[in-house]
Write a structure and sequence with these properties.
The complex is a heterodimer of chains A (about 130) and B (about 280). With about 130 residues, chain A is an all-alpha fold. Chain A is about 75% helix and about 0% strand. Chain A has one domain (about 25-130). In chain A, helix 2 packs across helix 3 and helix 3 packs antiparallel against helix 4. The longest helix of chain A has about 40 residues, at about 10-50. Chain B has one domain (about 5-275). In chain B, helix 2 (about 30-40) packs across helix 11 and helix 7 (about 160-175) packs across helix 9. The chains are: A mainly alpha (about 130), B mainly alpha (about 280). At the A-B interface, helix 1, helix 3 and helix 4 of A face helix 1, helix 3, helix 4, helix 9 and helix 10 of B.
Chain lengths: ~130, ~280
């Protein structure tokens, strides 16, 4: 059998279908995991802080400990409820990023280098937004 | 109001927003920000941060099914995401620097426009017979499942679609919405992609677009866990149940009702922005 995976027809059938199934599973697991972590953190937050007064009408910015990825991990280690929620939200934001990363690998396996480049550009923008701007 | 009451009310409101958003196809994110800003007097940038995160949850959840069934075109999505993510970062950067009243006014206008779009009848275009050279080079054509088997389609209008996608990303980053309506407009009308492929690929792209600006909001301290937690869980649960109810519900009446709510919120956002109350 001679397989020319570079022909559009060959790339569009079996490989893309399989990529679709894996991406679908990846997205769903990411959302379920993130929601579960947010829920756990949320319950803990309500138990500990449920009767405190709220004030969100003026912006003071979240403390440093809830802004940077590394600080959020430190907060989770000390079982801070807000940090656990923030970890869940971080997992949620990471889900599409993981999808893009996987797509880049899948396109490389398909020898579709144009799309490897396109995908890496998107990945670069996402990583800049998450880590580069602070 | 204490934390417990605030969480319960915001979760309930977000649940209803997610439910109606899924039932009407208009998306729940678009009412979450006005609800938080007008009803709960939350600073609009906190509201946008919370909405962005919930948009990632609902779109990723829905996209999972469509990608597996082979509706979404991964190449079209990936290629156009180079435009939406740059737009989203730009939109978020603008949002963090302009006055909140300006954001409120833009938001109001977008609400009115999306209500107008939803009331209009969609103009069905015939299948595109041949791909443009650029679309061919980018290998954007594909197939999607129909009751009669796999249907092939071609793609055109790449530059116009790409430009619109940049705008969609910018609105998403500026306002914390998925801006699915603009994405569908770009693919369905400008690029002549079949409607079902356009809507599902739009959904597929929304998560990545929102993630691009959510990173910036997080880094600047605009993702508040106390607000985002009930919003994200409420919208997600509402949209899951909404999608399950979709088959049975009388959607037409609901659509008009929801469009009316959106118009009212749009006017109120513009009013509050113009008078400097937001």
């Amino acid at each position: 059998m001679n397989e020319h995976s570079n022909s559009p027809a060959g790339a569009q059938t079996w490989d893309d279908r399989r990529i679709g199934i894996i991406i679908g599973t990846l997205l769903r697991s990411g959302v379920i995991l993130a929601a579960a972590v947010v829920l756990i953190g949320g319950i803990l937050y309500l138990v500990r802080h449920g009767h405190e007064a709220i004030n969100y009408s003026t912006f003071h910015g979240e403390p440093e400990s809830l802004k940077r990825v590394t600080d959020i991990f430190h907060g989770v280690a000390s079982l801070s409820a807000r940090a656990i929620i923030q970890l869940g939200l971080l997992l949620l934001i990471a889900t599409p990023v993981a999808r893009v990363l996987f797509s880049a690998m899948a396109f490389a396996l398909e020898h579709d280098y144009l799309y490897v480049i396109i995908t890496l550009v998107v990945l670069g923008i996402l990583l800049y937004s998450l880590f580069g701007s602070s | 109001m204490n934390v417990l009451e605030f969480t319960a009310l915001v979760a309930l409101g977000s649940f209803v927003a997610g439910l109606l958003g899924a039932l009407t196809g208009l998306g729940g994110g678009v009412v979450v920000v006005p609800m938080l800003a007008l009803l709960f007097h939350v600073d609009i940038r906190y509201a946008i941060g919370a909405s962005l995160v919930s948009v990632i949850a609902t779109s990723s959840g829905a996209a999972a099914a469509y990608v597996r069934e082979g509706y979404s075109n991964i190449r079209i999505g990936m290629f156009l995401e180079t435009a939406t993510t740059v737009g989203a970062v730009a939109g978020a950067a603008i949002a963090l620097h302009v006055r909140t009243s300006a954001i409120a006014i833009v938001f109001g206008v977008v609400l009115l426009y999306s209500a107008y779009l939803s009331s209009r009848h969609r103009q069905e275009h015939g299948p595109q017979l041949q791909s443009s050279p650029l679309a061919k080079k980018l290998r954007l054509d594909g197939t999607y499942p129909t009751p009669e088997g796999k249907q092939a389609y071609s793609v055109t209008g790449v530059p116009a679609g790409y430009g619109l996608m940049f705008g969609a990303g910018m609105l998403s980053g500026l306002l914390g919405i998925g801006s699915g309506a603009v994405k569908v407009l770009a693919m369905d009308q400008a690029m002549k992609i079949p409607f079902k492929v356009s809507t599902t690929t739009s959904n597929f792209m929304i998560g990545v677009t929102a993630a691009a600006s959510a990173g910036l909001y997080l880094a600047r301290g605009y993702i508040a866990p106390g607000i985002t937690m009930p919003v994200m869980l409420g919208v997600l649960l509402g949209s899951i149940i909404g999608a399950k109810l979709l088959v049975r519900a009388k959607v037409k009446v609901l659509r008009y009702l929801f469009a009316a709510v959106i118009v009212a919120l749009g006017i109120e956002m513009i009013f509050n922005g113009a008078t400097g109350r937001i």
